[in-house]
Design a protein that fits this description.
Largest sheet: 6 strands, mixed
Shape: globular
Number of domains: 2
Structural class: alpha/beta
Number of strands: 22
CATH topology of the largest domain: Rossmann fold
Distance between the termini: 36 Å
Strand order of the largest sheet: 6-7-8-3-9-10
Strand content: 25-35%
Number of helices: 16
């Protein structure tokens, strides 16, 4: 029996087509996996089904009836629940209090004994094991237990269709096996599951059917018992065709960055980087490929000392820098270029052009800003890096996404850094802006610059990098220097946890 159908769904964000006429069906009692790398459109598709996004085109049917959800509350009322990849828990609240926060009909006066028993019944029914931990603050729970609180928040609303977004991403091997057993219990009790995942092993192990998405398009829907790892990998990672023609790099002049046995924890206290060692030579672009959330961003933050390391060494030009303040690291010639929070939106293009170095002697004297020099600097960036704006006094908020990133990139490159850390800097940009920024990176390397390049776009990593490390669950699992179309699937296998 068909429980839900999404027919010819399209969705764009600006000029970026996130979903291109995608059609899937979900049958009652099955586990349907949506498989694909970052940016394939998996979560966007389910956010539309849950009322978080509005589709641009297409039809949604629920048990044969056409529906159009304008809010998550409407999808919840239709017995659809979604457990998101990022936890939405209040760490200081207890597990029970977090469950109550997720309910829309919580009475103003709560009978704690009664509500505790009701939530405990749900926990026991689905064998979550939280009955004795409902009064425990969330920050004292393990990552696996915190995820179970998120699951419990969903289950108390009695959903018929449950959507899980990368649910096993942070779990230990033991917790993963418990989770797989729990999925089987859910379907045995009549629930239907849509599992968003990049993990080929997980998809084959737990699914009834697997729908593979690649760059916003549905490539195939296959019975899990009738497919193989190699077939799924080939569908996930289509043939690589370079869009930018990089020149081979000249002979490097020595080691610039050396990371040894690095361990770092994420915001939840989970060891997101586990014993990572890598190096970057001068005049080299080194890519780190991996599904988003596998520790690559934390490596860049640790290099800048924006995130404290737990163990290991970070050397720049042979000097240990892991204990240095971020400002000192910047003065040594390392700068970070990320996807967001690099501009102060209400302030002008002119002011944003010097945010990294307002105390520079060229821009200020004895604490007094030199507005004429700052204006000249801003105009140079606008002209040199093709920042489309009405003028340097326009607020940064008035710029398009691509022009905002051009402004930030120009600001970074005008400092002539020795090492540029690029972290998902083209995320959500259109193709033209993306390729322009990649061209700027290649030009920077051609003039002697060095880049550690982190991106969720595997094509881009292969396109502009001289070498590529592959990271999976916080560990380096491969290194490639011969980057060809055949390399893409080899990297994809390592990213998707296929041995």
């Amino acid at each position: 029996m068909e429980i839900a159908s999404m027919q010819n769904i399209t969705k764009s964000f600006g000029l970026t087509r996130a979903l291109d006429s995608v059609t899937i069906t979900v049958n009652k009692g099955e586990v349907l996996s949506l498989l694909g790398e970052n940016g394939a459109g998996k979560t966007t598709l389910m956010n539309i089904l849950c009322g978080l996004y509005r589709k641009d085109g297409g039809t949604i049917l629920l048990k044969g009836n056409e529906v159009e959800f304008s809010s998550p509350q409407e999808s919840i009322a239709a017995r659809i629940g979604m457990i998101h990849q990022s936890f939405t828990l209040v760490s200081e609240f207890t597990a029970l209090e977090n469950v109550l926060l997720g309910l829309s009909n919580t009475p103003s006066l709560i009978n704690k004994k009664k509500i505790t028993e009701e939530v405990s019944v749900t926990s026991r029914r689905f064998q979550l094991g939280l009955e004795r931990k409902l009064d425990t603050p969330v920050y004292k729970l393990s990552v696996g237990e915190q995820q179970k609180v998120e699951i419990l928040k969903c289950l108390v609303k009695n959903p018929e269709l449950i959507i899980l977004d990368e649910p096993d991403r942070l779990l230990t091997e033991g917790e993963r096996q418990d989770f797989f057993n729990w999925l089987e219990q859910l379907t045995n009790q009549g629930h239907t599951i849509v599992l968003i995942t990049h993990n080929v092993n997980t998809a084959i192990m737990v699914s009834t059917r697997i729908a593979v998405l690649e760059k916003g398009k549905l490539k195939a829907t296959i019975q899990a018992k009738e497919t193989s790892r190699d077939e799924l990998i080939a569908l996930m990672f289509a043939e690589f065709s370079p869009s930018i023609h990089k020149q081979g790099r000249t002979q490097t002049s020595g080691r610039l960055l050396d990371v040894t046995s690095l361990k770092v924890r994420d915001d939840m206290g989970f060891e997101s980087v586990s014993d990572v060692s890598l190096h970057v030579d001068q005049e080299e672009i080194v890519g780190i490929a991996g599904i988003e959330g596998n520790g690559q961003s934390e490596i860049a933050e640790a290099v800048m000392n924006l995130r404290k390391k737990v163990a290991g060494s970070i050397k720049f030009n042979g000097e240990e820098i892991s204990s240095y303040p971020t400002k000192q690291i910047q003065k040594m010639g390392i700068t970070l270029f990320g996807s967001k929070n690099m501009l102060i939106q209400p302030l002008s293009v002119k002011i944003n052009s010097v945010l990294d170095s307002p105390e520079d002697s060229a821009f200020s004297t004895h604490g007094n800003l030199n507005w004429q020099t700052i204006a000249q600097h801003a105009r140079r960036i606008v002209d040199k890096y093709d920042v489309r704006c009405s003028g340097i006094d326009a607020p940064a908020s008035a710029l398009s996404g691509g022009n905002k990133q051009k402004l930030v990139m120009g600001r970074k490159l005008e400092q002539t850094p020795k090492l540029l850390l690029v972290v998902n800097a083209t995320k959500d940009l259109d193709l033209k802006s993306t390729e322009y920024l990649y061209g700027m990176l290649l030009e920077y390397r051609k003039k002697g610059g060095t880049v550690l390049f982190i991106s969720v776009d595997l094509d881009a990593i292969i396109d502009i990098s001289d070498r590529v490390y592959v990271i999976n669950r916080g560990k380096i699992v491969g290194e490639f220097s011969d980057l060809t179309s055949e390399t893409k699937q080899s990297i994809g296998k390592l990213m998707a946890e296929v041995s």
